[in-house]
Amino acid sequence: MAMADLTQETELLLERSRAITLHGRDKRGRAVVRIVGKYFPARALGGRADEALRGYVRGRVLPEIGEREFVVVYVHSLVDRGENFPGVGAIRAAYESLPAAAKERLRAVYFVHPGLQARLFFATFGRFLFSSGLYEKLRYMSRLEYLWEHVSKGEFEVPECARRHDDELERRPLMDYGIEATDRRCMFDAASMDTSTSLHSLRCIS
Questions:
Q1: Could you say which of 22, 55, 133, 195 would form a disulfide bridge with 89 (CB–CB 3.0 to 4.6 Å)?
Q2: How many angstroms separate the CA atoms of 102 and 67, rounded?
Q3: pTM of model > 0.70
């Protein structure tokens, strides 16, 4: 398959998945880029996740944003590293490929339902893996209600996986601290980071 056809195929796969879409404005009038981790077709993309993310963001997302300031809402609810998590390496590559002006216009990244493993990982390795410009814009949102302090609720389409997980957290609040888990699988650990950095695994707490 020709390179152009392969690129078109991966972009079409991402478009159909609706993993990355523009959704309304935040309360300061800035564009909102919604990224739903559970929708990301990581398994289907295989080793092309890095290239697919970079191409889709630069070719589809940035032109739609234009010259506006924007924020990213990343919904991590019910992500499974084997099915739909692209790896931190792919996320870092996509961010670093942005033009300097676009990085400046990115004002915040709201990380919805991060879980204990994600918090531990980024607290330990975040500053080493990401530039300070991105790391300092990261905001954890353990509940959807905290997101509504920043994003206009009526303009943001909440994926069903986020609603379900939010309801589960309300019923079982100890999940926030890793004391209680929905199942025995590790939804987010260092083994899924997919980076070249040598890291010790963060084991599931269950």
A1: 195
A2: 8
A3: yes
Residue with tokens 């935040």: 26
Q: Which long-range contacts (CB under 8 A, 24 or more apart) does 127-133 make?
A: 128/197, 129/88, 129/92, 129/193, 129/195, 129/197, 130/92, 130/95, 131/95, 131/96, 133/103
Per-residue pLDDT tens digits of the chain, which is 206 residues long: 454 555 678 788 888 999 999 988 999 999 999 999 899 888 888 777 788 888 889 889 999 999 999 999 999 888 877 677 766 777 777 888 889 999 999 999 999 988 777 778 777 777 777 776 788 898 999 899 999 999 988 889 999 999 998 998 887 765 554 444 444 344 444 334 444 333 333 333 32
C-beta of residue 76 within 8 angstroms of C-beta of residue 113: yes
Q: How many CB atoms lie within 10 A of CB 57?
A: 20
Q: Measured between alpha carbons, how far is 129 from 133 in angstroms, rounded to an integer? A: 12
Tokens of 53: 């993310």
